[in-house]
Give the backbone structure.
Amino acid sequence: MPKMKTKSSAKKRFRLTASGRVRANSAYRRHRLISKTKSQKERNQRTKILAPADAVVVRRHMLPNG
């Protein structure tokens, strides 16, 4: 059985917390920022913890060695 490789795109987009949850960057922060409210922009500054169902997919298929 060959080694399971980590997806290169997932390495750049996700990190694991110390407790094993998956952390990801927020969307909607790249362009058209003038039309968004200040509260929307502040809310999207931080990283987010993925929902458990999404985290299972990322950990199992994209970050098997994470």
Observations:
- The radius of gyration is 15 Å.
- The longest strand covers residues 14-16.
- Strands lie at 14-16, 22-24, 48-49.
- The CA atoms of residues 39 and 45 lie 10 Å apart.
